[in-house]
Fold:
Amino acid sequence: MAYSEKVVDHYKNPRNVGSLDKSDPNVGTGLVGAPECGDVMKLQMKVNPETRVIEEAKFKTFGCGSAIASSSLATEWVKGKTVEEALAIKNTDIVRELALPPVKIHCSVLAEDAIKAALGDWKKKQGEAESKPEEASATAS
Amino acid sequence: MAMKLPVYMDNHATTPVDPRVVEAMRPYFTEKFGNAASRNHEFGWVAEEGVENARAQVAKLIGATPKEIVFTSGATESTNLAIKGAAEMYREKGNHIITQVTEHKATLDTCKRLEKYGYEVTYLPVEKDGRINLEDLRRAITPKTILISIMYANNEIGVVQPIAEIGKIAKEKGIFFHVDGVQAIGKIPVDVQKDGIDLMSISGHKIYGPKGVGALYVRRKNPRVQLSAIIDGGGHERGMRSGTLNVPGIVGLGKACELCQQEMAAEAERLRGLRDRLRDSIMSRLDETFINGSMEHRLPHSLNISFAYVEGESLLMGINDVAVSSGSACTSATLEPSYVLKALGVGEDLAHTSIRFGLGRFNTQEEVDYVADRVVETVTRLRELSPLYEMAKEGVDISKMKWVAASDTH
Structure:
């Protein structure tokens, strides 16, 4: 399977790899996927509570090249956007940008879920009520 | 000597044709191009000579006689012929076949088709080391069992089955024993007499021969095995396999067998040394790595390692100047992880992290060292990207996590 140049670029030079402080009240953390499926993405965002602008984003991914690229791209895109703008990002946008083949579309879906999960977590920390159901995050027991 | 990139280390998938095999084949394309079945002129006789020569070379490698070798288009066809051919021929005797879960799809899918026609098939499980349990085999035998089919060595993990012991049991019970010999022939000593084998599938392109040609060993004495042909049309190969023979391919297969015969012992030792070097170089520099399948009962040139917390396809992408393969779902067309690893009891998460290395005749120590370095470098980098590695280092018990898989509402 040949990869698109953009996927290879994100894989070789992933943007925003790392972690933010989970306990920071302005950091939302989303952890989606499952090891048995071969795809786990952790996406974190630091949001300015006044402007609702995403100032920082970091990711870590266990998954194939397309999964890594999708989540790396997600962190690139959300930075500088407001919470509402970031929630509007669709997986199809990611598919188009990275030229993902059909068999890899689920990677983009997981990235969209990760964005929603991270922002859902941030909203919960702010005590905001939800009008639309947000994606749940994985939980440790 | 400059190392050529990319490095090929996927010799279980296929092998380069040995230049000496190409040389042996060459005259049969444009000079000795006759149909081996043309009885009436020199073109036919010369082609036939090439075929019969090759037949003897194949037979010699496995301890058989030339009359017991049937040429086919490859081991998949040989396996189809062996299993379907025996099943149909001995239908009056019984309708039960015994095989095992880590067999190649050529065996498994053929058995599945026979099940549709009313045959019963028992798929024996394997233990953690990848081998079947001989007691399970004994217990599975019934008065209606007509065939046991067990591969000599597995293509994904390289594990070698207790073939001689199985052969003894089969002989005791008067049941025919078919062996998929594809990965073992030419790599370790295989002898149809010593191992008690009645039918055996052979592949050209796994032993530095060309693709598109293989053979089936069919025992003629003690006992004699008869098969119903699955391809009709002219009665070639003693009625067992019709169709004009692939003369250049067959000549190539014969030469490949002859070279294996001559070089196998030394080559196995050299490759075992390289394989062990690769294993030690990787595992001494990385934690949380696991070998899949028995090291003791294994082909000397084979290695299958799981690298926890790093997904296989991303690892292959990172070592993109090395050709190996993975048991990860992401690398298969169907997105299903390796059924062989699953059968060993390897968890799906670890199955996604496995890499298969298959060393071969043309690999060098320099290549092994290069590959080890690239693997260690890439795993280390990907672990820095891995949320699972991070959690493991923090002491989180990943197996106790409740995961939420991707939603499918889009």
Q: What stands out?
A: Chain B has 13 helices and 13 strands. The longest strand of chain B covers residues 302-307. Chain B touches chain A at residues 309-314, 317-318, 328-330, 333, 335, 337, 347-349, 352, 384-390, 396-398, 400-408, 410 (CB under 8 Å).
